[in-house]
Specification:
The chain is of the alpha+beta class and 717 residues long. Helix content is 33%, strand content 11%. A hairpin with an 8-residue loop joins strand 1 and strand 2. Belongs to the protein-tyrosine phosphatase family. Non-receptor class myotubularin subfamily.
Length: 717
């Protein structure tokens, strides 16, 4: 039974952004509270605009009990059209996926979001005409293919005032000077040069306007094959070794073309590899890491574990949590990527060898590995501005196809793959293992992942710098000539006020190395077995060791044909990786030096804040890391107030530039997944359904199974 209360008397209108248009709406819609499956809910209005789907109830009009961490663009009950993953309709208690034209309209609408929220809207009490309009409107505007210029990004850019603050310290890498400054910062300007060969995109539309290559590479070579087969500089290590990337040639080639490309690569290799002074190792990532299709399949399975409709479903999956988690293969992919980054770091740091990453386009896994290596080896990339500059350099300007990989235009699911999300998951492993080494928090990474689906920023909505520049110079929608003024996601003040921004900064960031080495030992945090797989015997790899076959397979993979051994690779000890890994972990951690993630067994964890934040059953009230953080922030506030008093006594009053910290009062009531899950009610674990008990009785060997954890008395976390 649903208790029907009187419809809202007060008219509630949606808050519209510049350029946002109301397309359709429906009144007397009930938004279910999904935790307990009791069909309790709130009545309100469901609206769809050219930017978002929004539910408005009588609380939407009041500012009372406003959360400390509020997004100014996307509210708690807002779903941007790009954030919609799948839409289901419920017909006579049966769920059906909604796409295209609908003949019959559902009584309940279920929206699954890419940030893992789940919304249940009951349309049983809504007028039939309004149901038709709102359901067909939502399905059409969120699920059907779009033209690029139809994205809300362009509507907003043409209508919004250009009043963003200019204090953004992120290096955008849009000018030649930015690249030269980066070369100077990393001391790479001795062997490498920034080139202007691609000005006007005369080499390739996939390459950025400016990039860096070895000094010995001629302009003629860059122009020859549209930039393919050219080593492009990513970063230089303190010892002079450099990380490079290269896009390979198409696989299908005739013999004459293949021979010509082989000769070209031969010349390039001899130019940049001059042993014993300049050593070069190559790694074809398409053969040594999972494919994009494997990554997409694993993530699709993984996210299903967190798209929970009700409490019963949650506890049913909890019984087989470890089995389900392992079967997705997502954590194993994260482990493989981190291991590859450690192997590259070993070559650069210990062997003083240049590393060349090879991929078909050099804009997917190359971006992941090169970014991870820099986060691990360069402390600047662990600051907020440094990390943002890294994303600009390797991903945005580097040509990662955000539009295709995120499927923002709904054109082809074949191109979709969560490559950038994979990087954030890997960086999160480092952040939670070494918190003092990072200026930003896991909350920063979570809101960055959410920003992938907010189409008012141009950062994650183009496939290349060329595509952005081409569309930026077009005429605006209001027929006013002139370029669009796109926002960058790095201006966080657009989404958050100063109070909320404080949650993105790590108050315990170790800004300067401590002189006493004994104080730099890392604290070994307790494993949360629920968020990681139990330690099991690692499966032997089917591939040979890192760089063992790379030189043999180099031309085979680049040219698509088997060509005899061209470069002889020296054999490495098979346990060199393990020696490097164990040796580093046996020493005290320098938070401003090399950082190696722990990748054994349960060390690889589930990013709880991102994946569990909407599930009340997975939250610890008054527990988790937020309880510790709340106490630390209270102490910081007390220290700052004492500092102010001391300064006043010495007649040196501080001029208001003290870093503000968020007040986390009543930490005993906060959820462990704060600030996303605020003061939610305690979820009570229900009795297991009869079918589950029957399954347990049939499992005589349940005790012997290592991959399942059964605890019928306590919560999962």
């Amino acid at each position: 039974e649903i208790h029907i209360k009187e419809p809202i008397e007060k008219e509630v209108n949606p808050h519209l952004l510049p350029g946002e248009l109301l397309l359709c709406e429906a009144s007397t819609v009930c938004k279910y509270v999904q935790e307990d499956g009791s069909h309790r809910g709130t009545f309100g209005k469901l609206v769809c605009t050219n930017f978002k789907i929004s539910f408005l109830d009588d609380d939407s009009a009041s500012d009372d009990n406003e959360p400390q961490f509020k997004n100014k663009i996307v509210g708690e009950n807002d779903i941007t059209l790009q954030c919609v993953d799948q839409i289901y309709g419920v017909y006579d208690e049966k769920k059906k996926l909604l796409t295209g034209q609908l003949r019959k309209y559902p009584e309940t609408l279920i929206i699954y979001c890419k940030d893992l929220r789940v919304f249940n809207f009951c349309l049983r009490y809504t007028k039939e005409e309004e149901v038709k309009r709102i359901v067909s409107g939502i399905v059409h505007h969120s699920q059907t293919p779009k033209l690029l210029k139809r994205l809300f990004l362009f509507s907003y850019a043409s209508a919004a005032p250009n009043n963003t603050d200019g204090r953004n310290q992120t290096v955008m890498f849009e000018t030649l000077e930015d690249w030269r400054d980066e070369l100077e910062r990393t001391k790479g300007n001795v062997k490498y040069k920034a080139v202007t060969t691609n000005e006007g995109y005369r080499v390739s539309e996939k390459l950025p306007l400016y990039f860096v290559v070895p000094i010995c590479i001629s302009e003629e070579n860059i122009l020859k094959h549209e930039g393919r087969g050219i080593p492009i500089w990513c970063w230089s290590c303190h010892n002079g070794a450099a990380l490079l990337k290269m896009s390979s040639f198409p696989k299908e080639q005739d013999d004459s073309t293949s021979q010509m490309q082989k000769a070209f690569l031969d010349g390039i290799y001899k130019t940049i590899s001059k042993p014993p002074y300049e050593l070069l190792r190559m790694d074809d990532l398409s053969s040594s890491l999972p494919s994009l299709q494997d990554i997409q399949t694993a993530y699709t399975r993984f996210k299903q574990l967190f798209l929970i409709d009700n409490s019963t479903d949650f506890w049913a999956t909890d019984v087989k949590w470890f089995s389900l988690l392992e079967s997705t293969n997502w954590l194993e992919i994260i482990r493989k990527v981190l291991k590859k980054a450690i192997e590259v770091a070993e070559c650069l740091e210990i062997q003083h060898t240049n590393v060349l990453l090879i991929e078909e386009s050099a804009t997917d896994l190359c971006c992941v590995i090169s970014s991870l290596v820099q986060v691990m080896m360069d402390s600047y990339s662990r600051t907020k501005s440094g990390f943002q500059s890294l994303i600009q350099k390797e991903w945005v300007i580097g040509g990662h196809s955000f539009l295709d990989r995120c499927n923002h235009l709904r054109k082809s699911e074949k191109e979709e793959a969560p490559v950038f999300l994979l990087l954030l998951n890997c960086v999160w492993q480092l952040v939670q293992q070494y918190p003092p080494a990072f200026e930003f928090t896991e909350t920063y990474l979570t809101v960055l992942s959410d920003s992938l689906y907010v189409p008012i920023f141009s950062t994650f909505f183009f496939n290349s710098q060329h595509q952005r520049d081409t569309n930026k110079s077009g005429e605006s929608i209001k027929t006013q000539s002139g370029p669009f003024r796109f926002l960058t996601v790095w201006d966080w003040s657009v989404q958050f006020d100063p109070k909320a921004l404080a949650f993105l900064n790590n108050p315990l960031y170790a800004e300067k190395p401590k002189p006493d080495r004994s104080q730099r030992k890392t604290s070994r945090f307790k494993h949360q077995r629920q968020l990681s797989l139990p330690l099991t015997q690692a499966k032997p790899s089917t591939k040979r060791g890192f760089f063992r076959e790379e030189t043999d397979l180099f031309f085979k993979n680049i040219l698509g044909k088997r060509i005899g051994k061209f470069i002889n690779s020296s054999d490495e000890p098979p346990n060199s990786f393990r020696e490097f890994y164990d040796s580093w972990h046996s020493k005290p951690v320098d938070y401003h030096g090399l950082l190696l993630p722990r990748i054994d067994g349960p060390e690889i964890k589930v990013w709880a804040q991102r994946y569990l934040r909407w599930i009340p059953e997975a939250q610890l009230h008054g527990g988790g890391t937020i309880a510790t953080a709340a106490r630390i922030l209270d102490l910081m506030e007390e220290v700052q107030s004492l500092q102010v008093k001391m300064d006043e006594e010495h007649s040196q009053a501080v001029s208001g530039d003290i870093h503000s910290v968020p007040l986390l009062r009543n930490s005993a009531r906060l959820s462990s997944l704060f600030p996303f899950a605020l003061l939610q009610r305690q979820s009570v674990k229900p009795a297991l359904p009869t079918s589950t008990w029957k399954d347990l009785e049939d499992e005589d060997d349940l005790v012997k199974r290592d991959d399942e954890f059964v605890d019928l008395s306590g919560d999962m976390l």
